[in-house]
Amino acid sequence: RSGEENTVEPSKGKPPVTPDSVVNLDHGDPTMYKKFWKGIGHRATIVIPGWQTMSYFSDLSGFCWFVEPGFEREVRRLHRLVGNAVVEGYHLLVGTGSTQLFQAALYALSPAEDGKPMSVVSPAPYYSSYPSVTNYLNSGLYRWDGDANTFDGDTCIELVCSPNNPDGGIRKPTVKAKYGKTIHDFAYYWPQHTPITEAASHDIMLFTVSKCTGHAGTRLGWALVKDTEVAQKMIKFLELNTIGVSKDSQLRAAKILKAVCDGYELSPASEANRLFHFAQRKMAERWSRLRATVAASGIFSLPNELSGYCTFAKEIVAANPPFAWLRCHKDGVEDLEGFLRENKIMTRGGPKFGVDERVVRVSMLDTDEAFDVFINRVASLK
Ligand code: PMP
Known about the structure:
The chain is an alpha/beta fold. It folds into 2 domains: about 1-40 and about 270-380, Aspartate Aminotransferase, domain 1 (Alpha-Beta Complex), CATH 3.90.1150; about 70-265, Type I PLP-dependent aspartate aminotransferase-like (Major domain) (Aspartate Aminotransferase, domain 2, 3-Layer(aba) Sandwich). Helices cover about 35% and strands about 20% of the residues. It has 11 helices and 15 strands. The protein has helices at about 1-5, 35-40, 70-80, 95-110, 130-135, 210, 230-240, 245-265, 275-295, 335-340, 370-380; strands spanning about 25, 90-95, 120, 140-145, 155-160, 180-185, 205-210, 220-225, 300, 305-310, 315-320, 325-330, 345, 350, 360-365. The strands form 4 sheets. Strands 2-8-7-6-5-3-4 form a 7-stranded mixed sheet. Strands 9-12-15-14 form a 4-stranded antiparallel sheet, covered by helices on one side. It has a two-stranded parallel ribbon with strand order 1-13. A hairpin with a 4-residue loop joins β10 (about 305-310) and β11 (about 315-320). It is globular and about 65 Å long. The protein binds 4'-deoxy-4'-aminopyridoxal-5'-phosphate. The site of 4'-deoxy-4'-aminopyridoxal-5'-phosphate has 13 residues, from α4.
């Protein structure tokens, strides 16, 4: 009994979905991955004794004093395994989610040369957090300037999200500003969502365990940064903002990423050990069910399926975006988010992404139970 007395009961997360309850697919909560990690069992468990990770400091001899060396090692190993980003010649920074690193990057790239707030833009439809996270402090360093398609200034930071949240599009920078800078948000540039077509090598690339392995609650992201001065300014932001990043989370993430890499490099080749294969198959099944349901409905449509040669899978694969960008063509339905809410489906409407109300974003990353209820409800709408 002594062991039990010491354990702290973890939270249960969102309440389970029942056939009559509201199904909430507004957030991209990646609960789909739980089955995989249950199967992995203790190979992804860590125990941290009370006397460990007490210091503020992780590695005073490293480039960034609050990055855990074991975390950095597993991140670099994972990118070499997947081939989605170049790591040689890049500084690796860690953040409380890639959300914190996004703000660190804005801080590092601002203000504009003339001291005025830097314009921050992204082509619509853009990730709904970009405007709010950019503007919530009303900073004098940078400000949200909207849809990159209509931006015609000289200086800006363009947020390049690829595959794009919400519509799954594959993106390259679009703005032709004289002093344009880019932040590449690669939250979804993983094999379960899109063919890996190149080892990306942009100036600032953001990743997160939230959408790579499903550990959103660990709140851990990382940035690959080419320029030393920019990386140092980002570190300064993280020092001022939170005096570094939880070592406990970094150790946990390191163990999780190690289990992912070991699943490919050490374990027998089975889906039970191979995260990207598990998630790719699950996403493909969900997309084929949703496409069939939408085709039968006659009132909805989805973006066309993309496919390409994946250097990781070594075959041509279809993309399986993390969100369905669902459009409604039914007469009289102007506000699709509201229409679906009346039918007990919570989604996020187009205006939050800078576009019209007849389109919504629906998470494809939730539990099997929630996805089944969603499909049944969509099938019943005529
Ligand atoms: N970028 C994109 C495109 C996202 O969709 C998300 C999560 N919804 C994030 C960043 C933030 O991820 P994190 O949990 O690492 O803060």
